């Protein structure tokens, strides 16, 4: 009888041990968080490259007037050498920097005279991929999710719209000298260099 | 029953072995036979996809392949049948326009398991380890440009409507997100309705007719493709509001390019289906030549066509 009781006790202990190691409890929110895929933080990524790779890329941009001369004389070669494009098609993006004199300011643009060229600095519609793609720093195939890739542009553009443009426009006057770095989108099948438009990355007023 | 088991299983085994051997023999018997390329397209009920499919097949033929077009009729089950047929019939590559970004993944994986390369055209699948390469219109960037033009033309204020394509297609959302990445920054622009019409002209007309009854004071309509833009325009004409409402499309289809010239439609995003299709066929040739390191996603730029630059464009491309 005593032996049987010991056997039962050992059996129950074994079952309890087996049960304890078979089941575990975890808070549901922890479990869900563990199952979630890593979320791409575009703002953090842009912050990490803003003052380093991006600033360096635009700081080393080709001179605007020289680039325009090259595009006029050898468009195909200049697209190949200085343009950046994500895939295939007619659109190419170019980094540029230069200096010009403010000739007019309207709701959406600032017009600069750069040498013999009139140049539009975009100050309203800062959207799209020009700044991201002209830099050549970000590759689509590094991002399995195309939506993540597009949020990089949105973050870059948002910083320009919120941090650069309001200060620039508030202290601007016709006749000011402005140094700029930025990106230009051009179509090689329908190349129009009459009034280039620049999406700015930096703008500096030299009154 | 024992007799049935004993006789049926050896028979089936021999039949399967025979079929496999026959397939293998067929492939090995004539190494000089032209490669066979299947062009599986989501629908041939839309002229844009007809151009895509026919260009892919024509380019494949020019390159010396035997090409056949299969129409999935926007049905992933039918698409699966086409994939299975293509595999069992010994096709060597598939140029593929998916029906559904998620629903089509399994079909691409079936082909991958059979060592048949798949080149996606225009539409994306939500996997980067299944297709050999995906040649895709940059719908997002194209619709950013349309969004900017939309804001300018509506002068940053007014009520508007968005008509979406197929909700299961990534292009639907890439276009919508690109458009809204601009338009949503303007509080004066109020979207009063957003409905899907599955990229279908007639559905878009019906949707637009219903919306106009509730919101007769809209100023603009953004449509996820040109077929729907034409449908929306027809509804506006019928309601006598064609002059009041600006219509924007996406594709670069023949009738919309003509309508832009005539001042009926404001703008569209010109995709390049012929370029996409030719590239896919040429990638297949490179694959047959031994290349394997294809970029998973190859974006094709989209250009905005409006009333100022329409003279530079024609249906489905540049002049």
UniProtKB/TrEMBL annotation, chain A:
Gene3D superfamilies on file: Envelope glycoprotein gp160, DUF2291, alpha/beta domain, Envelope glycoprotein gp160, DUF2291, helical domain
InterPro entries recorded: TM0957-like_sf, UCP033535_lipo
Top-level taxonomic group: Bacteria
Protein name per the record: DUF2291 domain-containing protein
Organism per entry: Algoriphagus oliviformis
From TrEMBL, chain B:
Keyword check for Ribonucleoprotein: no
Protein name as catalogued: D-ribose ABC transporter substrate-binding protein
UniProt key word Signal: yes
Signal peptide range: 1-21
A Pfam family this chain is assigned to: Peripla_BP_4
Species of origin: Algoriphagus oliviformis
Domain of life where this protein originates: Bacteria
Domain Periplasmic binding protein: from-to ranges: 37-291
Subcellular location: Cell envelope
Family: Belongs to the bacterial solute-binding protein 2 family.
Alphabetical keyword list: Signal
SUPFAM superfamilies the record matches: Periplasmic binding protein-like I
């Amino acid at each position: 009888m005593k032996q049987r009781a010991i056997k039962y006790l050992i059996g129950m202990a074994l079952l309890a041990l087996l049960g304890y190691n078979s089941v575990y409890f975890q808070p549901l929110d922890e479990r869900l968080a563990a199952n979630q895929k890593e979320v791409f933080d575009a703002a953090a990524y842009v912050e990490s490259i803003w003052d380093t790779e991006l600033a360096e890329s635009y700081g080393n941009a080709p001179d605007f007037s020289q680039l325009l001369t090259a595009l006029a004389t050898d468009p195909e070669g200049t697209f190949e050498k200085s343009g950046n494009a994500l895939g295939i098609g007619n659109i190419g993006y170019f980094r540029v920097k230069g200096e010009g004199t403010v000739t007019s300011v309207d709701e959406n643009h600032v017009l600069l005279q750069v040498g013999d060229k009139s140049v539009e600095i975009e100050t309203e519609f800062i959207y799209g991929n020009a700044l991201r793609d002209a830099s050549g720093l970000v590759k689509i195939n590094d991002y399995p999710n195309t939506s993540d890739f597009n949020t990089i542009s949105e973050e870059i553009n948002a910083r320009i719209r919120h941090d650069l443009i309001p200060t620039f426009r508030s202290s601007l006057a016709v006749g000011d000298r402005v140094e700029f770095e930025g990106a230009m989108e051009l179509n090689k099948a329908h190349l129009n260099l009459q009034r280039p438009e620049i999406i700015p990355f930096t703008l500096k007023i030299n009154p | 029953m024992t007799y049935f088991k004993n006789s049926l299983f050896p028979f089936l085994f021999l039949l399967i072995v025979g079929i496999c051997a026959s397939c293998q023999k067929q492939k090995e018997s004539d190494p000089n036979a032209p490669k066979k390329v299947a062009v599986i397209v989501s629908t041939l009920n839309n002229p844009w996809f007809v151009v895509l499919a026919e260009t892919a097949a024509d380019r494949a033929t020019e390159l010396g392949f035997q090409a056949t077009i299969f129409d999935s009729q926007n049905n992933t089950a039918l698409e699966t049948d086409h994939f299975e047929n293509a595999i069992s019939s010994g096709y060597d590559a598939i140029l593929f326009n998916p029906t559904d970004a998620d629903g089509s993944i399994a079909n691409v994986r079936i082909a991958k398991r059979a060592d048949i390369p798949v080149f996606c055209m225009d539409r994306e699948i939500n996997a980067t380890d299944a297709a050999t390469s995906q040649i895709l219109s940059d719908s997002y960037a194209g619709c950013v440009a349309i969004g900017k033009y939309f804001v300018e033309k509506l002068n940053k204020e007014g009520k508007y409507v968005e008509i979406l394509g197929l909700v299961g297609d990534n292009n639907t959302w890439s276009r919508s997100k690109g458009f809204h990445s601009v338009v949503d920054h303007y509080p004066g622009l109020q979207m009063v309705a957003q409905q899907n019409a599955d990229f279908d002209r007639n559905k878009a007309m019906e949707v637009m007719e219903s919306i106009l009854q509730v919101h007769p004071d809209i100023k603009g309509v953004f449509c996820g493709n040109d077929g729907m833009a034409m449908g929306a325009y027809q509804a506006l004409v019928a309601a006598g509001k064609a002059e009041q409402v600006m219509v924007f499309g996406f594709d670069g289809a023949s009738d919309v390019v003509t309508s832009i010239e005539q001042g009926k439609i404001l703008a569209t995003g010109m995709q390049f289906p012929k370029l996409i299709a030719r590239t896919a066929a040429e990638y297949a040739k490179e694959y047959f030549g031994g290349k394997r390191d294809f970029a998973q996603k190859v974006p094709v730029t989209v250009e905005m066509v409006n009333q100022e630059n329409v003279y530079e464009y024609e249906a489905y491309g540049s002049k």
